[in-house]
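Lab notebook: predicted structure, single chain.

Context: the supervisor wants predicted structures on file for every construct in the current expression panel, including those that have not yet been purified. This is the next one on the list. No modifications to the sequence; it matches the entry in the shared construct table.
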Amino acid sequence: MLMTSLGTDRTTASVATRATVLGVSLLLALLAVISVMPAWSMSMLPFVLATSELSPLLAVLTLVWLLVSRRFLARHRAWRAAVTVALLGTSVLTLRPLVQARHIAHRAQSDVLATDATGALPPGARTTLSFAGLPSARDVREQDVGYVAADGSPLAMRVFRNTEARGVQPILVVLYGGAWRGGDPMQGARVSRALAQHGYVVVAIDYRHAPRFTHPAQLDDVRRSLALVRDSAVGWHGDAARIALLGRSAGGHLAELAAYAPGDPPVQAVVALYAPWNLADGYRDVPTPDPIGVRGVIGNFIGGTPDAMPARYRDASPSSYVRPGLPPTLLLFGSRDHLVKPEFNRAAAMALRAARGRVIAVELPWSEHGFDLVPAGLGERLAYRTIVAFLDRELVEARAVSRRPR
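Prediction complete. Output recorded below exactly as produced.
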């Protein structure tokens, strides 16, 4: 009886062990599959972003579990072989973005350093773009500044400044995304703090939201914010002659509009992350799947359809203002974007190059919309390092060259 009981207990334990190994292995495989799936809904997008941008962590967990599971299944060769093959496949799938990211980072650094359209590097230049995490923001002080739109609507900007920095610093104005209908200046605060620590006065500005306010209300707010930034630059130890714009999604669209539209005070550089380009084309050519409902988003922002309001669509599209002499532009976007199709950013890069503008386009093949907002993710790291290299060249190094005695 005792031997029978012991045998039953061992069988039960063996079954439980195999069930546990199988369950964890399936979970890891499911996460890997999610990392390469399109986001069918906005509620699914965070899961796709997290699994794709944190895929190296998922790969490490998979390899560790592979070693553990092999010990658990030491007496079950068939099970061990099957689980090993599945986990090795999962680890290969989750390691691929890291391999791609290292290649993209190297190429992005080469493009940033290039002296001309041929991609030639200056003598002695080395492509050594770091892929480390964001620096600590230990010396960064944050300040909220309240102001109002033209109609009296309250707005608020957030200023990030390194209190230990010496002399005047370049200014980076940040515009948040949110389909023109939501968001706030604290979006991407990790990156804003890191850029401030690096030596920029970072000012995250605000604007009114659709559908209550339609174009050009948002652009008017950006222009009003930029005027306030220029007026306040001295008090923040910022250099009003060295201003760059950085925007995400709808904010990237507004950054390009503010930088390209004729008549506005010039800015020295533009960084646009996964930004809309030609709104009429965006309305007609929607992604598949379309989790956010692109036509509704653009229609609410403009106030109608392209057929009903063609002039307003042209006026609201950065593509309408391409011409020689535009400020240098850095475009960052993902190949798997299902909110703003990557084709539009590719078209933006082609149009700007055709106008002989300096443009650097960095496409992340594993990434969805919002890739730089995943803390410690591949996209956040690559985007930050590329942005720093680009802004340093356009706002710091170019300034130093212009000041050299002839």
